[in-house]
Amino acid sequence: MRTLSSIAIRGLPLYGCVASALCASGAVAQGDEPFLRPNSLVISSSTYDRSQSAIASLAVGVALPSTATATTTAIADNTYINVWNNDSVDGSFGVTSAIRLTDIEPRSGHVFRSLLVPTDQVVTSFPSKSELGLHVSRDRRGLHLVFVGYAGAGVGALDVSNSDAVMGQDPTNPVTFAFGSAYAFHRTIVLMDVRGRLSYTPTINYGGNNGRSALLGSNGLFYTVGNSNNGNASTFGPNGTDPDVTVTTGLEVVNPINAGSASAPIPTGNSAEVDPLTQYPFGKNGALDKAGKDNNYRGVTEYGGALYFTKGSGSNGIDTVYTVSSLPNVSNAASTAISILPGFPTDSARATGGNFTPFAVFFANSTTLYVTDEGTGAAVDAADHAGLEKWSLANGTWTLDYVLTKGLIGTVDGNLYGYEGQYPDVMTIGLRNLTGVVSDDGIVTLWATTSTASASGDNGADPNKVVQITDRLSATTMTNAVSRESFKTIAGPTYGTVYRGVAYVPED
Question: CA distances (Å), 228 to each of 182, 205, 207, 209, 246, in order?
């Protein structure tokens, strides 16, 4: 039996696998076997592919988006090592790639099944580090896996993560100017059942940026988080956008369509932003922030009938953990209040300089919350927050107990070789998506994807890892037992591959 560590050999790509080092020959179950096996771990990943569509012909001098009225030219070719340097001239730069879902036995690493999501339906944006969050939900039909992708772009398209969600949505978007008003791709919620069958709910949301994570709520509605507004639009109307990018962002509630195609028609009024007027504005020198950017949310989960979600990037608003106490529907979303979880930061992201960068949350019980912190690479951040934070609730307020970092922060992965040469050394600086399970004896096992820093032009393209750690549920201080806990690698790093989401599948 192959383990995950032998499948994802450090620094070596596996060319026999279309989209992930997690699908080596002989390790993948047959297509008629169940996907969401109880007590398994599902991982989302993607592998860079320069052989298709626009990326295949990308060369120095090719036109790329710059502003709403001008283009620029590429400064790098399409090789994996160099292509991300185009970020320096094109702030929208990205390349679409296939989505791989792999279901493993998390302790041995045995691969039960690996599935390549049809690329003619949805894809991801390879360097967009906040995409492909995974959630496992249950309804009357059984277990489902939920995530978000781009409809209709195919593999190898440029700058899709900053394109409009609907044709002609934002004339101030640089991507619209460069590629035309028809260059738009629905941010589409994908629902997968235990047989690996997929259905789709396209949306009008997150125009100009990316949908990041989605879950199927206990009430049967979808809840998504993401960002928007790659142009300079401020409000709906003659000088704004249609649909309005400033209110098709943040936390959205969406009525499921569950169509057979990601390009299905979107019913009018099928989604709504939760509390769109709550922007928590903190502007530079008193000026208001760019509309829609203060609710730049990344991770989301449901626990006890409430929603919890995070903001941990950008210089606008408050980087913290938010909550909605009850599940809204489309009709009451705008009036449903968003609040900051008591005890979590309430100061401006601009004031703190990004020292707190939460990404995802996991509830071990009603009074124990784990939060991944992506980190910035700064020494003060690495010392105070980056890694896996454990919070406890007492008297209505959450308090930070400690941060787990051993075997994680500052580790460097080098010798990452591929057919195009050696990728720059990659250092782990924090964590992104998160999942976990609590055993009967009070041991919490957690899995997360790593965030990185390197000399690459876009650290979202760095080969990162899936890691695991255990913790004692009852611990609230850094005891000797807690201090001995250390992260171990479950998958990666693998040249050309990024790992995005993780989801633990519970017992039936």
Answer: 18, 8, 5, 4, 7
Type and span of the H or E element at 292: none
Between CA 133 and CA 155 the distance in angstroms is: 19
Residues of the chain with pLDDT under 50: 1-21, 23-30, 283-286
SS (H, E, C) 391-433: EEEECCEEEEEEEECCCCCCCEECCEEECCEEECCEEEEEEEE
3-state secondary structure of 101: strand
Task: Please give the model's pTM, rounded to 2 decimal places.
Answer: 0.92
Q: What is the DSSP letter of 228?
A: -
pLDDT value of residue 238: 58
Q: Residue 3's pLDDT is what?
A: 30
Three-state DSSP class for 45? strand
Distance between CA 473 and CA 442 in Å, rounded?
5
Counting DSSP H helices and E strands in the chain, the numbers are 5, 31
**Cα distance between residue 185 and residue 384, in whole Å:** 39
160 phi and psi angles, rounded to 5 deg: -65, -35
Percent of the chain with pLDDT over 70: 88
Residues 209, 223: Cα–Cα separation, whole Å: 17
Buried b (16+ CB within 10 A) or exposed e, 231-258: bebbebeeebbbbbbbbbbbbbbbbbbe
| Contact in structure between 215 and 223 (CB atoms under 8 Å) | yes
Classify the C-alpha dihedral 417-419-422-427 as positive or negative.
Answer: negative
- Residue 189, Cα to own-chain centre: how many angstroms? 13
Supply the pLDDT for residue 284: 47
Q: Is 6 exposed, middle or buried (0-12, 13-18, 19+ CB in 10 A)?
A: exposed
Strands in 194-296 per DSSP E? 198-203, 211-216, 222-226, 250-254, 271-273
Measured from the Cβ of residue 199, the count of other Cβ atoms closer than 10 Å reads: 18
- pLDDT, tens only, 313-328: 876 778 899 999 999 9
Question: According to the model, what pLDDT value does residue 236 have?
Answer: 58
Partners of residue 497 on adjacent β-strands: 47
- Rg of the chain over Cα atoms, rounded to whole angstroms, equals 21
Chain position carrying tokens 């950017």: 293
Which residues have a Cβ under 8 Å from the Cβ of 416 and sit 6 or more positions away?
Answer: 10, 11, 422, 423, 425, 426, 463, 493, 495
